[in-house]
Amino acid sequence: MQRSYLLAPSILSADFARLGDEVQKVSAAGADWIHFDVMDNHYVPNLTVGPLVCQAIRPYTERPIDVHLMVKPVDALIPEFAKAGADIISFHPEASEHIDRTLSLIRDCGCQAGLVFNPATPLVWLEHVLDKVDLVLLMSVNPGFGGQKFIPSTLPKLRQARALLDRYEAETGRHIWLEVDGGVKVDNIAAVAEAGADVFVAGSAVFGAANAHDPNRYDSVIAQFRAELARIDREGA
Ligand code: DX5
Ligand code: ZN
């Protein structure tokens, strides 16, 4: 089936000293969404940025800001990120006492709502809340750090999620995005797409040190990702 694919570079691997410029450049290079990783040194063993930084980058892009909350508890931060200009807000079900309530809160704040699954978290958490979900995010690494290796057991799980979301779309006519996050590179994006993903987060592959001296680095990585996606649409993974 022909899908539309979206690329969501994660600014976790960007140069934080010049974040506005990084966001502007990666948007001009063709990023579809800006993936914004929020870590609290409690739900995950790392600490990143909050709503103030989301608000600070907002003027530098017209792309949707895709906020990935790796925090516990989650609810208090949701209105803050909505005010700071987030478009999509996702959270891990383990981090919320009341998943249905948190999903509603995100939509009530005017954002799209996403549910995130760690590699070992089963998809059953989706069963009773699909109507309140706009995005399913499957982690293909354990959350907390950029630059980790893709965990292969994500591929069968992606196929399972794709089948579930296709059934839902056939019944309701509503598309739910299926996003993958962690270890996505030019050499595995085709396999990830073939398994069913339609939104691809990439941090180190886009902003990583290997590209640091290439002035057109974002254009060239994004072009390589798109070429791979076009290739599997033509000939399979
Ligand atoms: C990990 C984050 C990811 C991370 C991906 O917890 O959620 O978004 O930035 O980075 P790469 O693409 O380097 O694995
Ligand atoms: Zn993320």
UniProtKB/TrEMBL annotation:
Binds 1 divalent metal cation per subunit. Its cofactor is Fe(2+); Mn(2+); a divalent metal cation; Co(2+). Its EC number is 5.1.3.1. One of its GO terms (cellular component) is cytoplasm. Gene3D superfamilies: Aldolase class I. This is Ribulose-phosphate 3-epimerase. It catalyses: D-ribulose 5-phosphate = D-xylulose 5-phosphate. Belongs to the ribulose-phosphate 3-epimerase family. It holds the Pfam family Ribul_P_3_epim. Pathway: Carbohydrate degradation. A divalent metal cation binds at H35, D37, H68, D181. The gene is rpe. Catalyzes the reversible epimerization of D-ribulose 5-phosphate to D-xylulose 5-phosphate. GO terms for biological process: pentose catabolic process; pentose-phosphate shunt. The active site is at D37, D181. CDD domains: RPE (cd00429). Transmembrane segments: none annotated. Keywords: Carbohydrate metabolism, Cobalt, Isomerase, Manganese, Metal-binding, Zinc. PROSITE patterns: RIBUL_P_3_EPIMER_1, RIBUL_P_3_EPIMER_2. One of its GO terms (molecular function) is metal ion binding. InterPro entries: Aldolase_TIM, Ribul_P_3_epim, Ribul_P_3_epim-like, RibuloseP-bd_barrel. Substrate binds at S10, H68, G144, F145, G146, G147, D181, G182, G183, G203, S204.
